[in-house]
Amino acid sequence: MNKFIQSLALCLAFCFPAFAAQPVNVNTADAGTIAANLKGVGQTKAEAIVAYREKNGAFKSVDDLVKVKGIGDKTVAANRDFILVEGGNVKPKPAAADRSGG
Q1: Domain ranges, residue 68
Q2: What span, in angstroms and rounded, lies between the C-alpha atoms of 100 and 24?
Q3: Is residue 57 part of a domain?
Q4: For residue 56, what are the contacts with CB-CB under 8 A and spacing of at least 6?
Q5: Tens place of pLDDT for every residue, the chain, 102 residues?
Q6: Has residue 100 been placed in a domain?
Q7: What is the 3-state secondary structure (H, E, C) of 51-83?
Q8: For residue 81, what are the contacts with CB-CB under 8 A and spacing of at least 6?
Q9: Contact predicate 21/38, CB 8 Å
Q10: Which pLDDT does position 16 carry in this prediction?
């Protein structure tokens, strides 16, 4: 019986990561969803992704994520299979009007 439990635990240990992360659309997801589904991206980095998206508009490619402070090539590479960017219709916030009178 002990061998059975050890085998079951080992099997679950290898199977669980396959079900843990789900693909996430970084153009539509909230910070909590991004943090929960991308490796190496906690709540703070996820909030930075959302803030960047709101300021600059939708990400056009997965590689655009490196423009976000705290997100580097390694993070993008580790998550490439779980990052979606299609359907991004987020427009950047309008810039403040120049009132210099010039």
Answers
A1: 43-86
A2: 42
A3: yes
A4: 67, 92
A5: 577 666 656 655 555 454 457 999 999 999 999 999 999 999 999 999 999 999 999 999 999 999 999 999 999 999 999 999 986 554 555 555 555 554
A6: no
A7: HHHHHHCCCCCHHHHHHCCCCCHHHHHHHHHHE
A8: 23
A9: yes
A10: 47
Inside any domain, residue 80? yes
What tokens were used for 68? 């976000």
Tokens at residue 21, please?
Answer: 């992360």
Tally of domains within the chain: 1
Q: How many CA atoms lie within 13 A of 51 on its CB side?
A: 9
- Report d(CA 77, CA 89) in Å as an integer: 24
pTM score of the predicted model: 0.69
- Does residue 72 form part of some domain? yes
Report pLDDT for 76: 97
